């Protein structure tokens, strides 16, 4: 069997192209359907041995065909199985019709569905390619199953969920398990789709990897395979100056904590030196709470330029707790396109003057990494937020091209996008990472990897993944301070 790459992610259109290419190469498409249906039956039996009855809901296309084959497999295994058709099964064609005719149990109309304790539903109504709102018939089924409180095993994707955007199209099943084939789809990773899929199994049904890779576009899952080879690794000749010098900018005396989190994270993530550039009134506050992180007074843009002229600095983080306004803009302009992670207040400071920021990094090929959460993204890219029918990763790519920057569009489904369209969707962050200060920690990790010379896209992607790993190690109940203490080398 093929070992499928962990990064592999195909949009519904790309998966359809892979299916067509497999058929054109001479692969038996009914054989693929048989393997898919058998994988679903095997998963259902393995995870629900206590089921009293399997209820298979079969749709009007190939997803329904998978369902008929799954039903046949369940029956052969001795399980009590009923099949319900959505639409007229007599209108099925091709492989799906063949699967329906081979099923030992004939389908009955979905209007006759009655559910009871011990039932397990196999949702084989629609696959990942659904692009329109579900019908009233399917919506009624979704609510009937939901109200019954019984487990659902989804075939490919929970019916009603957009495979490209991860958004419900009117209504969608909430699955306990989803069995998909050859590759995950963006809708498996993007929220709220991920929360509707339950545990996801990717089953190899025999499409050659060369066909999948040829069909794949520029979006993939964020996994160490995409950037592990570029991670900085200390060697016996390493010293602090070779590992980069990260500069982090502090806010005033009452707003210093966020920048200290970034600075501490930068040091923990491998920067050789970290200096917290602080205004005069914040110097005593920061000095009282820093040890390995160095401190320098930088009050004005002129003082910043003097520091840049006198010191060799590799990368910068600006924004956490810094304050919104002219000073933030002046500092960014003074950095003259040096490698920069712009976060929080730094992003908001350019909401009315974004072209000033974009022009700096368009003219100079130095890396700019923008790390907006949903609200900050809306402030800087209001035109993109309002785009109808666009997925989160498509909006992130559009923003990256507009800004000539790496975009880290944060959330439970953080998306990392580059101006060339390359995109990674992250899915290793535990829910407790949504806590005050965690974004400041992420900015510091990205800054450390940039300071080490890692390319900006890979630095951002690696930082997002390592951030999630640190949160998993820290455990539920973590704070941003304890998160910093769990930043460490890539595990596994």
Automatic annotation (TrEMBL):
Residues annotated to bind K(+): 63, 123, 159
Required co-factors: Mg(2+); K(+)
A Gene Ontology biological process term: nicotinamide nucleotide metabolic process
Entry binding sites for AMP: 410-414, 439
Annotated EC: 4.2.1.136, 5.1.99.6
Keyword field: ATP-binding, Isomerase, Lyase, Metal-binding, Multifunctional enzyme, NAD, NADP, Nucleotide-binding, Potassium
All residue ranges annotated as the YjeF C-terminal domain in the record: 223-492
Cofactor annotation remark: Binds 1 potassium ion per subunit.
Molecular-function GO terms, alphabetical: ADP-dependent NAD(P)H-hydrate dehydratase activity; ATP binding; metal ion binding; NAD(P)HX epimerase activity
Domain of life: Bacteria
Family matches, as Pfam families: Carb_kinase (PF01256), YjeF_N (PF03853)
Family listed: Belongs to the NnrE/AIBP family. In the N-terminal section; belongs to the NnrE/AIBP family.
HAMAP family (UniProt xref): NADHX_dehydratase, NADHX_epimerase
Functional summary from the UniProt entry: Catalyzes the epimerization of the S- and R-forms of NAD(P)HX, a damaged form of NAD(P)H that is a result of enzymatic or heat-dependent hydration. This is a prerequisite for the S-specific NAD(P)H-hydrate dehydratase to allow the repair of both epimers of NAD(P)HX. Catalyzes the dehydration of the S-form of NAD(P)HX at the expense of ADP, which is converted to AMP. Together with NAD(P)HX epimerase, which catalyzes the epimerization of the S- and R-forms, the enzyme allows the repair of both epimers of NAD(P)HX, a damaged form of NAD(P)H that is a result of enzymatic or heat-dependent hydration.
Protein name: Bifunctional NAD(P)H-hydrate repair enzyme
Source taxonomy: Bacteria, Pseudomonadati, Pseudomonadota, Alphaproteobacteria, Hyphomicrobiales
């Amino acid at each position: 069997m093929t070992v499928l790459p962990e990064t592999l992610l195909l949009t519904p259109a790309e998966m359809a192209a892979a299916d067509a290419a497999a058929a054109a190469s001479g692969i038996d498409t009914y054989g693929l359907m048989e393997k898919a249906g058998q994988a679903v039956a095997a998963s259902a039996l393995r995870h629900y041995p206590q089921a009293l009855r399997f209820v298979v809901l079969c749709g009007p296309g190939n997803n329904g065909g998978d369902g008929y084959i799954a039903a046949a497999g369940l029956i052969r295994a001795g399980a009590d199985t009923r099949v319900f058709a959505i639409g007229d099964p007599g209108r099925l064609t091709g492989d799906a019709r063949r699967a329906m005719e081979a099923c030992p149990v004939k389908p009955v109309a979905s209007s006759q569905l009655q559910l009871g304790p011990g039932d397990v539903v196999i949702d084989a109504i629609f696959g990942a390619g659904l692009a329109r709102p579900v019908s009233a018939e399917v919506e009624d089924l979704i609510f009937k199953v939901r109200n019954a409180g019984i487990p659902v095993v989804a075939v490919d994707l929970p019916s009603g969920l957009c495979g490209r955007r991860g958004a419900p199209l009117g209504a969608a099943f909430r699955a306990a398990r989803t069995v998909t084939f050859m590759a995950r789809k963006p809708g498996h990773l993007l929220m709220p789709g991920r929360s509707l899929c339950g545990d996801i199994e990717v089953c190899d049904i025999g499409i050659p990897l060369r066909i999948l890779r040829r069909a794949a576009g520029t979006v993939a899952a964020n996994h160490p395979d995409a950037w592990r080879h570029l991670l900085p690794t200390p060697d016996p000749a390493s010293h602090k100056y070779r590992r980069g010098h990260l500069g982090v900018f502090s806010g005033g005396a009452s707003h210093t904590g966020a920048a200290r989190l970034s600075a501490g994270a930068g040091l923990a993530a491998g920067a050789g030196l970290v200096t917290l550039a602080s205004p005069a009134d914040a110097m005593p506050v920061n000095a009282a709470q820093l040890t390995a992180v160095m401190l320098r007074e930088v009050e004005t843009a002129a003082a910043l330029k003097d520091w840049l002229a006198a010191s060799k600095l590799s990368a910068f983080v600006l924004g956490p707790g810094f304050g919104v306004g002219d000073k933030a803009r002046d500092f960014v302009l003074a950095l003259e396109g040096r490698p920069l992670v712009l976060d929080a207040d730094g992003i908001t400071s350019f909401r009315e003057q974004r072209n000033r920021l974009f022009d700096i990094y368009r003219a100079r090929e130095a890396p700019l990494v923008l790390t907006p959460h949903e609200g900050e993204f809306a402030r800087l890219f209001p035109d993109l937020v309002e785009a109808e029918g666009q997925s989160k990763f498509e909006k992130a790519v559009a923003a990256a091209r507009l800004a000539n920057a790496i975009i880290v569009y944060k959330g439970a489904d953080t998306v990392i996008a580059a101006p060339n369209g390359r995109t990674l969707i992250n899915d290793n962050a535990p829910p407790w990472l949504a806590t005050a200060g965690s974004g400041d920690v992420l900015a510091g990790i990205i800054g450390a990897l940039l300071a080490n010379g890692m390319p900006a896209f890979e630095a951002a992607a690696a930082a997002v993944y390592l951030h999630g790993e640190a949160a998993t190690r820290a455990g539920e109940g973590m704070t941003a301070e304890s998160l910093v203490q769990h930043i460490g080398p890539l595990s596994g």
